[in-house]
Amino acid sequence: MTPPAPQRAYPVARSEGDSDPRFTFGLVSNVAKVLQAHGYPPLVVGADLLELHIALFHFLYGKEGGK
Question: N or C: the chain end with fewer CB closer than 10 Å?
Answer without folding.
Answer: N
